[in-house]
Structure prediction request, 388 residues.
Amino acid sequence: MRIAKVDCRLVQVPYRVPHRMAPGTSRFLRRVLVFIETDEGVTGVGETGTTIPERGGETMESIYFAIKRYLAPRIIGMDPFRITQIIDRLESSHWGRTGFLCSKCAIDNALYDIVGKTTGRSVAELLGGVNRTRFGVSRSLGVKSPPEMAADAIRLKERGYAMLTVKAGFDPRDDIERLAAVRDAVGSGYPLEVDVNGGYLIETAVKTLRKMSRYDIEAVEQPLPWWDLSGMAKLRRAIDIPITADESAWTPQDVIALAKAEAADTICIKPIKNGGLYLSRRIAETADACGMGVLMGSKHPLSPGTSALRHFAAAIPGMHPILGYGAPEERFAGDIVTRPLTLNEDGSVDLPEGPGFGIEVDAAQLDRHTLHESSLLDPPPAEEAGDE
Prediction:
């Protein structure tokens, strides 16, 4: 079996409610779908994308053209089962291990889908075996007024979410006020975490998170800019809240640096930012060897990427039992598969069944949401720019 063709499709789906975090606000989700076809007629699908430009500089435009013009031609004719060799070849085409991670993810996912479909195995089985088939789910609260966020928190708790995330990294007083309102709404004992997205500097972080500690939060995610490992280590010693590294943890080498600096307790893995399932597993194993826990983030994928998250989480023995993403239906007014992945009535999610990722792309929906390549050259919509 050989790789015969690699096709890219750019899709756009609107958020049900604009998504706001410290770096900016998004009203539409754009994703790149990669379809790898073999000479035996088996096709695998992979999903990737960004909401804002990534730490490595990747944007939706760069991802699309990097795959189509540079990465895809390098893998034509290769055996799709040799995923390690394919990733090594892609990484040999640029300087450094952090390059084109989001781009590589889509190719990686499509390869695993092909191998699963060909062998009749799920991707979780290919990654080492199924350790669990059902997961609790956490949900990020949209940044609104404290009363509105409190109302949202009550609704989501009643819906069955196992944990909620309060976005921070804005004005510290407003951040604390929103967190206090959410804690009052959900009551004591219900798990809450705070995600700063690197929005604080060390002086602000120490003072603000010490005040937040009274609200009994499970962890604070990426409290400082990704590069400030010494600051994160100082903060970790100064507060009594576990620190999760997200933007600071892109590669296994990043995890080793975090461990040496004693800058984090837990690593947030997102296959899209970490280069796909093969490289994400290396990160999980490195974190485990360094004595750090791992949890699952997302990047807000559609159903192909969501299935990849669930299969990965199912295969990693030490993965946190609460996933950082439930289903596309939570956030988006559309999808591109015949049976979109959903939430259970109790707020949990299940591992998709079937070979590969267990999903089937709906050609009509794919066409409906596909953007023409020329749209990549248009300026971004004004309402998507900046931080509101």
About this structure: Residues 101-119 form the longest helix (19 residues). Residues 382-388 have pLDDT under 50 and may be disordered.
